[in-house]
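Reminder to self: tokens first, then the designed residues, so the page reads top to bottom the way the pipeline ran.
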């Protein structure tokens, strides 16, 4: 008997495989699907989908493939791993996909390209749409991307012969920035964002409804606090939501419960680093202890009989050993992380992960250098400005700025947590690149700022936080869990505590000064609106 049968499910509700049958159409994912299908039907050529790890890029890809598969006039191909040692190797793999056969022995790159073009022309004459989906696009080299650009040159007078959709992590943007001839050919560049609280709840309910065999009345029940804690711990990342919910289901079995509380969610999130075998040993030990206690004091209670325990142990053993390679989910920086930091993190701060620079920002229309620096640094000094001008040789002065230009931010000053005043921020979003963080900041408005921090566990993160931080942890937690009205566009996801051990924070030369209560701003600091 599988473990999920004990909870009234006919199949596993929170599998980490991208099963299209469990697809939940969040607003961002549905919009991505519709835009991609329109672009493919119109034969627009190249389309890009960007998103951080675990946001559902692969699920969207599978769902679109499934949708197009029913159309006999559409031929789809999926390249799961585009990493190749040479351009010729990738060309041979594409020939196998698009021509359904290996290239001839000794064929040159020109011969293979001509064979691909002939195949695409033949299918175009039969009015067949050929679409190539590439997952893990961030693994593409510059040479491979140049090859794809050449294939996009195969066209008729009215349409591209090959449609390409690349699903990649945000760092793929860096490669696109270096290859303007490819970037100019992009028809759609769609960025997938995390789920909000309401979408997180709907995702969980949808998956349990799909897996349930006894109707919604038999499915485990989540309290409103449990959903809030689940969203806070997962940051709205679907993969983290699903992985954490899987652990929650195991927790329900261990405790023989049908309701999920915020405390259970928090407990399962803290155990994310526990290996499956360790977890199974803990489950078995806990169940055995419970059986001993019940046999002594509650012999008449039937739900703890040996057959039930045997079924549960067998189900857990079978499932946990088969899922030994389930990837752990990184918990967000929060008060819970701070509570356990003394034993979990090293005594010294993490090494500076930004020695190569903070990243780049593409200048939007109407932006000045002072606005961009204020968005990145919060406040900055003339020394910060001078360092930035030195790092950007094309900028002779702050006024030499034009839309579309790339501004490189030099390595910032690193501040260990123990050397900063104690402050707690409400975190509203988190990205992995400076460019994506700045784009989110422009959407949120001047009351927000980018907070850059790193640790050995999380690496480097760009968080969107309110400019004014809290002095007291209790006030910060109250603000985090307070109900948010419809007038507020976005709800906070969690807390970032400057006292969390083992962390580094990054900013301008006067970053620590900006953490003090804002009375009169220092005369040598500049603070412009976004």
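Designed residues (530 positions):
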């Amino acid at each position: 008997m599988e473990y999920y049968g004990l909870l009234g499910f006919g199949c596993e509700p929170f599998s980490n495989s991208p099963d299209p049958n469990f697809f939940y159409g969040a607003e961002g994912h549905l919009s991505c699907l519709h835009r991609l299908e329109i672009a493919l039907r119109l034969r627009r050529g190249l389309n890009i989908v960007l998103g951080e790890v675990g946001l559902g890029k692969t699920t969207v890809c599978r769902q679109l493939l499934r949708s197009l598969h029913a159309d006999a006039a559409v031929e789809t191909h999926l390249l799961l791993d585009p990493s190749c040692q040479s351009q010729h190797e990738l060309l041979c793999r594409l020939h196998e996909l698009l021509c359904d056969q290996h290239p001839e022995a000794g064929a040159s790159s020109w011969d293979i390209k001509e064979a691909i073009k002939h195949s695409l022309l033949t299918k175009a004459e039969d009015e067949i749409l050929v679409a190539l989906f590439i997952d893990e696009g961030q693994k593409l080299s510059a040479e491979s991307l140049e090859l794809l650009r050449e294939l996009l040159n195969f066209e008729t007078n009215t349409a591209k012969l090959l449609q390409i959709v690349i699903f990649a992590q945000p760092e793929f943007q860096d490669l696109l920035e270096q290859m303007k001839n490819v970037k100019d050919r992009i028809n759609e560049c769609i960025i997938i964002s995390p789920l909000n609280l309401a979408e997180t709840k709907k995702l969980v309910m949808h998956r349990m409804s799909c897996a349930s065999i006894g109707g919604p009345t038999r499915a485990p029940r989540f309290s409103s606090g449990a959903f809030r804690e689940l969203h806070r711990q997962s940051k709205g990342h679907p993969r983290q939501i699903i992985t954490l919910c899987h652990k929650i289901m195991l927790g329900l079995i261990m405790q023989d419960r049908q309701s999920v509380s915020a405390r259970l969610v928090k407990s399962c999130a803290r155990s994310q680093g526990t290996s499956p075998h360790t977890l199974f040993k803990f489950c078995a030990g806990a169940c055995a202890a419970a059986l001993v206690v019940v046999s002594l004091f509650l012999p008449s209670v039937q739900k703890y009989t040996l057959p039930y325990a045997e079924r549960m142990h067998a189900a857990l053993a079978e499932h946990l050993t088969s899922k030994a390679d389930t990837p752990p989910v990184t918990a967000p920086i929060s008060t819970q992380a701070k509570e356990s930091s003394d034993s979990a993190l090293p005594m010294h701060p993490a090494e500076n992960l930004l020695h190569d620079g903070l990243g780049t920002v593409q200048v939007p229309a109407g932006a000045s250098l002072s606005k961009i620096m204020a968005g990145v640094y919060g406040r900055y000094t003339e020394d910060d400005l001078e360092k930035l001008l030195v790092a950007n040789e094309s900028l002779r002065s702050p006024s030499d700025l034009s839309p579309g230009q790339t501004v490189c931010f030099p390595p910032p000053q690193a501040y260990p947590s123990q050397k900063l005043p104690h402050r707690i921020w409400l975190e509203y979003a988190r990205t992995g690149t400076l460019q994506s963080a700045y784009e989110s900041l422009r959407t949120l408005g001047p009351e927000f700022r980018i907070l850059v921090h790193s640790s050995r566990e999380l690496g480097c993160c760009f968080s969107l936080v309110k400019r004014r931080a809290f002095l007291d942890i209790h006030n910060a937690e109250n603000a985090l869990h307070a109900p948010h009205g419809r007038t507020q566009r976005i709800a906070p996801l969690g807390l970032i505590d400057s006292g969390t051990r083992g962390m580094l924070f990054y900013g301008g030369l006067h970053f620590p000064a900006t953490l003090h209560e804002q009375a009169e701003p220092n005369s040598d600091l500049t603070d412009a609106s976004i």
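DSSP finds 19 helices and 15 strands in the chain.
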